[in-house]
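Box 3.1. Reading complex inputs
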Amino acid sequence: MERILATYYIETPLAPEKAAEVLAGEQSSGTFIAVPGETEELKQRFAARVEKVTPLETVSTPAMPGAASSSGQYNRAEIKVSWSVENFGYNLPVLISTLQGNLYELRQFTGLKLMDIELPPSYARYYKGPAFGIKGCRKLTNVQNRPLIGTIIKPSIGLTPQQTAGMVKTLVGAGIDFIKDDELLAESANSLFNDRVDAIMKVINAHADATGKKVMYAFNISGEIDEMLQRYEKIVKSGGTCAMVSINSVGMSGVKKICDQRQLAIHAHRNGWGMLTRHPLLGIDFRAYQHVWRLAGVDQLHVNGIQNKFWESDDSVVSSIKACLTPFYNHQPVLPVVSSGQWGGQAPETYRRTNTVDLLYMAGGGIMAHPMGAAAGVVALQQAWQAAVEGLSVEQAAATYKEFAESVKQFGKK
Amino acid sequence: MERILATYYIETPLAPEKAAEVLAGEQSSGTFIAVPGETEELKQRFAARVEKVTPLETVSTPAMPGAASSSGQYNRAEIKVSWSVENFGYNLPVLISTLQGNLYELRQFTGLKLMDIELPPSYARYYKGPAFGIKGCRKLTNVQNRPLIGTIIKPSIGLTPQQTAGMVKTLVGAGIDFIKDDELLAESANSLFNDRVDAIMKVINAHADATGKKVMYAFNISGEIDEMLQRYEKIVKSGGTCAMVSINSVGMSGVKKICDQRQLAIHAHRNGWGMLTRHPLLGIDFRAYQHVWRLAGVDQLHVNGIQNKFWESDDSVVSSIKACLTPFYNHQPVLPVVSSGQWGGQAPETYRRTNTVDLLYMAGGGIMAHPMGAAAGVVALQQAWQAAVEGLSVEQAAATYKEFAESVKQFGKK
């Protein structure tokens, strides 16, 4: 019978083997005292199994509140635990409850992070994965051999549909591939959703009619189920190609329902993610996280960016990009969305470390605040990526490309 | 215009006032460089506002990775930030993205925890809250003036519907008020959902016909939207009164959709919660957490228990119970579900600290492994609560009540 394998980074006052057994028991057939009905046969079939324990460093200060160590030492380790697919079949919420549920409350751990998940082939058959993914998003935007260049409408909140559409007009005229709502905006008092779609799609459709290029706009449909489905339909009817969902806030069941429609590319915003990953010994690593959302069918997924304005290290961002691009059987990979303080200067380093242009590269001020205007801002980003692929440094790129040189003057080295 | 107020516990290398402004900016109209279209008028209307900053202790080691402090000192503080309801109207996922979204990634914080939320009266009018709550759950189970006594079928996973129904038969015969599936079980290879409902409801309905008491069984419907709705309907048609949802795994939009049906009491399991709260300086406090789920309409919500088997302190559990019982305008309060290693010995302390019997008190082995049998186990729990209300200590209660005395011998002082 197929099994699902989860890797955890743990810290425990116990021997790591013992702690791993506690976790496996709690997440399959454990209770605090033996009760009737618990037979060896069903234990064998449904019990979680500790597959591997790799001891790591020992520390004297626990990372989090939990059981005290009698020796004063806390042992870190990597452990691998497996479950039979018979336990839950194909049910993502229950998979999540099993791999990342009550185990975080066990006092036997002073640190616990889900690092990775390995799923059997039948999961790739049961779930369709991204309806568009990298290939489909390239086709929708007609962009090949370079990252899609995108931007977020700022300020996040407060613009009227007409003001937003005005900015969209500037951006599509500038040659942008992708634009998105901010995650703080779904429908505000002065920007009703349908009005915003009407105003924006009028601009995008007119540009598409004139040039053949349909810019992808990710409208934030995050909300209740029926509302999301209505707004999804509004986008489809208006000729849009993408909907954005705040995946942590909407949650798995809601996101899956939206992805299942398979008519629009789904832009997955991971706001709230910091809460789930920021502590090195608590929560989830992106490698595990991206896996379940790809199963749900999101087409684009945020990964932060190199030299970002947030707390995340470049190593972590690189690892996240690679995770998105790692094949899952025959599924389309998800398009990594690079953002946060990006202006093009990070392109050479991003390319050097990931060796890919399969990205949606988002820049905010880097476009709208370019000294030569938004069109030059978009060109500068394309140049940055051209230079990156050519193996040029930021300095060499600036010496070669005029618009990019202006970006360096404006946004570089602050 | 009404505003929503959020309280955060923060740690920052900056002056707390400065860090608070960064948070407010990021979560309303912030970007890394000024762009056209940002007028003073819309800033005033849509900008988040720092309402209060209360400096607390200073530490020399940051709680989490973030910006380094030039002084080597990290300042802790409580801050209050408000948003106009005009920013999002009545949209829980967007409320969540605003109050607990990207802010967790800000490098200007080395610790950030959402502690509480204050919502304006219009939220109590727009959202209906729990369809049943404490009052409704008491009515459905016909239990007054004491906690509902409940249990979880164990082992968590592996029993057939017939085995489960057999245990249910013992339990309802024993006088239990409430039984639930484990969160690890929705539908397993040897326990199909519909078969389980049929087998269990046959027992529960027969018992109700014979005695007039309908035991509440929380069937775990966690899954995809359509599947959850089908299973919900199956429970309704079979005469059931409750459905269980793993709220973190299903997510807000899915849970809201289920609650909106308002025909069954919704048992909200918070598995995965440890990840969101276990670190003292990261994530969410239960006071804030329970608020949004009550708006969604859950009727019962897990709070762990006094002297539990998990990491959580008694203080934290007491605070959670009180949060559930705190009125929100005219909404029914949510029924706190007390569980984890409970066997009745914790009843006096639980009552002493919370002064309430408005609880669903869950015991596992405490019932099924009682030396005199399950019926005595249920009686022992009722006695424990009777004694608690009478102000007896565990020792005094054991001297008074025979079945409880056996519990003390079996489960006390390990």
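In summary: The CA atoms of residues 180 and 272 of chain B lie 18 Å apart.
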